[in-house]
Every structure is written in structure tokens, then in C-alpha cells.
Amino acid sequence: MEHICPKCGVSNREAPFSGPFCIKCRPVEIDCPKRMEFIRCSKCKRVRLKGNWVEADESKLAKEVISKCKGDFVSGTYDFRKQEATFFVGDRRQVFPVKRKIKVNVVKNICPECSRKSGGYYEGIIQLRGKKGRIKKAQRDLKKMLLKRTFITKEEELKEGVDLYVGESKAVVELLAELGLKAKITRKLAGQKEGKRLYRTTFLIRL
Ligand SMILES: [Zn+2]
Ligand SMILES: [Zn+2]
Question: What's the gap in Å between 98 CA and the centre of ligand 1?
């Protein structure tokens, strides 16, 4: 017996049917959130998922979005640019896509680890000494480049110059080598941290 799909008019001789509708027009129930939000640390780029801060690229976040959706689909993908999820629905005979809009925001914040670090931790101090104008320029340039590699805990304006407190000494060593800047380096044992010796390195730069 011939059936005509009431929605698109296709006949069951041309397309598979599911109940009164052809398989493409059959109502699909997919339950998904209208909007979602992720928090990404702007320093270490990790994302908070289920209470933990983890490494997560877009494809991992897309999987997370799809995992919040329930329904009759075989698989799904999420497109951050279009803010749209595509679900693949069907059976052994035919699979077709169903789209749903889901608004996903990625909010910037600082994870507890990074905030603890920037709350006082540092391995190196860059001491800039010399003419005021040169110090200002070096301070500006160094800061810009350092922030791409590490974090700056504190900046101190002193009578004799400027001190920059920097998260990682290694980053300072690399940067100075790259810029060809000479520094007088002194290293001091500053205590222990998780069983490891913690050194503080001072880089004195005369400008
Ligand atoms: Zn139809
Ligand atoms: Zn972080």
C-alpha cells in the first residue's frame, strides 16, 4: 500500500518511512540546553570541566556540549562559529542531519593555580638600573615579551630603578639571550617547595 508523507509528499515507494512520516520528516526529539558556558583560564588556557581545570581544545568542548544533549541521535558535532549542533539521526537504512542552535559562551577567568602563582610566587627578579627614560622603555618592552612566556607577580618602582618579579627564571634567561641583553646574575637558595630546592635569581641589567 502506498503512503504519502504528510509533510513533504514523498511516497513510501521512494523513501523509507517511520510511522506516518518519511524518515526525514519524522519528528525527532532532541533535548539540548539553549545555552552553555565554559570558563577558560586566561593564563594557562585550561578549562573548568566538572569541577576540574583541564586541558581542553575546541573538539573536547564540542564533545562536552553534545554530551549534554539527549535524544534519538547516533552522533553529534558542534560548530563554535555557527553556534550550532548537528545531530545525525536515522537507522541502518538512512542517516540524516538535524540541526539545533545552542549558544555556547567561553568566559575568561583565572584558575586558582594561576591566581595563587600571581599572588606572590616568583623565581626571578629583573632589576633595571640606569637612565630613567631607558628604564621605562626596557620595562615596557620586557613586560610585553615576558607575558607571552610567563607571568609577572609584581613591579616595584624604586629610587634607583625598577624591579620586575617574574614567575619563571628560565623565561627570563631565554628572553635576555634572545634580546642580546647582558645581565649580572646572582642566584640564591630561597627555601624548599614540594621537596625541591627553590632558587631566586636576580638579573641586574644596566641600561
Ligand atoms: Zn517527508
Ligand atoms: Zn590557569
Answer: 14
> Cα(20) to centroid of ligand 1, in Å?
9
Q: How far is the CA of 159 from the centre of ligand 2 (A)?
A: 34
Task: Provide the H-helix boundaries in 23-124.
Answer: 58-67, 112-118
Spell out the domain ranges in the chain: 31-112, 119-206
Which ligand has the shortest distance to the CA of 42?
2
Residue tagged 615576558 (cell numbers):
146
Tell me: the pLDDT tens digits for 33-59? 999 999 898 888 999 998 788 999 999
Whether this model's pTM surpasses 0.70: no
| Cα 3 to ligand 1 centre (Å) | 11
68-126: per-residue pLDDT in tens?
999 989 999 999 999 999 999 877 777 888 899 999 999 887 777 786 666 677 889 99
Strand partners, 120: none
* The pLDDT of residue 108: 81
Greater confidence (64 vs 25) lies with 64
Q: Is 166 exposed, middle or buried (0-12, 13-18, 19+ CB in 10 A)?
A: buried
Ligand with minimal distance to 24 CA:
1
How many CA atoms are closer than 13 Å to the CA of 58, on its beta-carbon side?
Answer: 8
Closest ligand to the CA of 11: 1
